């Protein structure tokens, strides 16, 4: 809790492995409380922005916007004003290995929503990855690289603006 609560902002490159084993890359930004942004590199036509209230998931290709309450998502745990590993969040397990600590959590009220596993390096203690198993049992993994903590971030990063288009690159 102390480590997570010490993070006011975080930015990092990310690699995401989706349930279908597809790999996406991009840039991730977080500002507590309640704000985050996933900017996916082409050819992934997705933008995710949480503005403190809503998590906006925009599929550019389909022109479709989905909104959820940011705190009703698994990742809401780490963007909360104060991270409390108790009450609404239940720690299901803590695994310690030589170089990493893995902390698996569930929503206490709605455990059927799935699990969030936060994976930290030990020395130095740093958030390096998370794994989400959704309500259908599908696993999504997000690994972080080039992590910067508590640096100044542009507030406009956390304002959702509908992108006009995404340039596609054909990799076939």
Task: Describe the overall structure.
With 172 residues, the chain is mainly beta. The protein is 5% helix and 50% strand. It contains 2 helices and 11 strands, in the order H-E-E-E-E-E-E-H-E-E-E-E-E. An 11-stranded antiparallel beta sheet has the order 6-5-4-3-2-1-11-10-9-8-7, with no helix packed on it. The chain starts with a helix and ends in a 23-residue tail after the last strand.
What attributes characterize this protein structure?
172 residues, mainly beta, 11-stranded antiparallel sheet, 2 helices, 5% helix
| Approximate strand percentage | over 45%
Q: What ranges have pLDDT less than 50 throughout 5 or more consecutive residues?
A: 166-172
Strand order of the largest sheet: 6-5-4-3-2-1-11-10-9-8-7
Any idea what the radius of gyration is?
16 Å
Could you give the count of β-strands?
11
Note the gap between the termini. 45 Å
């Amino acid at each position: 809790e102390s480590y997570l609560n010490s993070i006011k902002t975080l930015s990092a490159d990310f690699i995401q492995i989706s349930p279908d084993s597809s790999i996406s890359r991009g840039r991730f930004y977080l500002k507590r409380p309640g704000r985050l942004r996933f900017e996916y590199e082409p050819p992934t036509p997705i933008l995710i922005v949480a503005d403190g209230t809503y998590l906006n998931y925009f599929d550019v290709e389909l022109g479709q916007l989905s909104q959820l309450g940011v705190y009703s998502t698994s990742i809401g745990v780490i963007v909360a004003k104060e991270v409390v590993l108790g009450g609404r969040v239940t720690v299901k397990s803590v695994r310690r290995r030589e170089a990493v600590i893995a902390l698996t959590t569930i929503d206490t009220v709605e455990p059927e929503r799935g699990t969030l596993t936060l994976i930290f390096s030990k020395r130095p203690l740093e958030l390096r990855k998370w794994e989400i198993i959704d309500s259908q049992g599908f696993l999504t993994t997000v690994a972080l690289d080039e992590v910067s903590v508590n640096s100044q971030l542009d507030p406009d990063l956390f304002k959702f603006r509908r992108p006009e288009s995404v340039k596609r690159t054909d990799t076939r």
